Amino acid sequence: MSDKYVVFVCTGNTCRSPMAAVLAENIFIENGISLAVYSAGVNAWAGQSASVHAIAAMQEIGLDLSCHRSQIVSQELLEGAALVLAMTEQHLSIIRNACPNANAFALGVSDPFGGDLQIYRRTGAEIKQKIIDHLEKIREAF
Questions:
Q1: Are 16 and 123 in contact (CB under 8 A)?
Q2: Which residues are catalytic?
Q3: Residue 61 CA neighbour count, 13 Å, CB half
Q4: What is the largest distance, in Å, between two alpha-carbon atoms of the chain?
Q5: Region 5-140: CATH code
Q6: pLDDT tens sequence across 23-68
Q7: Where are the domains of the chain?
Q8: Strands (DSSP E) along 1-142, which ranges?
Q9: For residue 137, with 0-12 CB atoms within 10 Å meaning exposed, 13-18 middle and 19 or more buried, which class applies?
Q10: Long-range Cβ contact pairs of 92-99 (< 8 A, separation 24 or more)
């Protein structure tokens, strides 16, 4: 694992947080930010692929989620992160309980799970905009 990294956290680590991770990697590259990016879920089954619609929505904008495998959020992952970005306040609460000293905040992104491809496209666009909106806050963490 890299020395400087950000972690995106959602529920199952198959929709929002994997999309956020690939979007952030791309945004960071475009903005000259050299950070590793990881994702995890508070209630994930380890080793699951990203959802079909998440893969398709990211593929449409040139990003690849085909190799993603879910992981459960761990104490080690949280403690080593310079910044943890939770998808909801509920995820943030779980993170703070597990790791009270984590530098974390919530993005406020609702779950597209069970929705159609259009919902995943909108969720991806929302995540991208929230990352861009918080780019300065992300830079400050490092």
A1: yes
A2: 10, 16, 111
A3: 17
A4: 38
A5: 3.40.50.2300
A6: 999 999 999 999 999 999 999 999 999 999 999 999 999 999 999 9
A7: 5-140
A8: 5-10, 36-41, 83-86, 104-106
A9: exposed
A10: 94/42, 95/9, 95/42, 98/73, 99/75
